[in-house]
Amino acid sequence: MGTVAHTCNPSCLGEGGRRTASSRPTWGENVFFLVTNFLVTPAQVQGRCPEHPSVLLANCWTDEDCPEGETGTHSHGIKTGQCVVFNGTHRTCEIQSWCPVENGAVSTRPLLIQAENFTLLIKNTVTFSKFNFSKTNSLDTWDASYFKQCRYDPLSSPYCPVFRIGDLVTAAGGDFEDLALMGGAVSIRVHWDCDLDTGGSDCWPHYSFQMEERSYNFSYPGPRPRTQAGVGVYGVNGTASHWWESPGMEARSMLKLYGIRFNVLVTGQAGMFRLIPTAITVGTGAAWLDVVTFLCDLLLLYVDREAHFYWRTKYEEAKAPKVTRDLSRTKPTVTPTSPAVQMP
């Protein structure tokens, strides 16, 4: 994303400042932050000034209500021990800090509402090294104006990698104006499910969007070093500072940034038919069937309380038939005798 939108004249930030909406690379992986709203505290210098009445324990009546050296969780500085006038209706503890302090009044409408029409180009290449296959999510085209004209639509243009920010937030179930006011987070999921038997012609990503957080000031991570005059630096806690040198002192304009954090998550799976892996899988499955059959028999025949029932069902006891003699049908046995000899 490189689009920039302007919302006011340069005088709103003091010397040389202007309000812009932009997205800059973050120090997170697969994450980017889009600034949609901010609070400006111009021309701050280091010194002593009243704390803002909205800060806890900042309001006071006497100096005893402001212990010297004390600092609160949301305080802008260190208490000096003095109770001073903030305005016609409030007295607050004096602090040592960048002055004047942030007033805490956020606009009721996002200052950078034009960011809704920004576009996001997602470039993603998936590689399945096991199958020696890789593919990008962009269509192969010779039309140089294709990516300038196409916009992602789940029905009419599901393979266009260019997303309008407003449409993306709507698809996630959010309202851009509400989300842009105080910030939030949106998840962009890119899932590849590829059947490589067709040569990868049907291998395309599927996009889904989901709201993660609402109404939260997401900080833009990064360092805040001292810079040359007039150079804006993004820092921690969602702040950006515009530094310059006033006569005899250092000064700055401080911005509290609100925006939408986009988290991009890529997942994928692929499959291809091969004879040898299929044969191994089938053989392994058949072997496991034999093992399961053996284990089931072991449990049912020797462990289960109803083992005798399974024994009778699984096995049939075979007995030898009994042999009986029928005397009526038995022939008598004749023993041959020697002929008689007559003596003379």
From TrEMBL:
One of its GO terms (molecular function) is ATP binding. Signal peptide: none annotated. Pfam families: P2X_receptor. Keywords: Ion channel, Ion transport, Ligand-gated ion channel, Membrane, Transmembrane, Transmembrane helix, Transport. The keyword ATP-binding does not apply. One of its GO terms (cellular component) is endomembrane system. The keyword Kinase does not apply. InterPro entries: P2X6_purnocptor, P2X_extracellular_dom_sf, P2X_purnocptor, P2X_receptor. Residues 323-344 are annotated as: Disordered. Residues 330-344 have a biased composition (Polar residues). Transmembrane segments: none annotated. PANTHER family: P2X PURINOCEPTOR, P2X PURINOCEPTOR 6. This is P2X purinoceptor 6 isoform X9. The lineage of its organism: Eukaryota, Metazoa, Chordata, Craniata, Vertebrata.
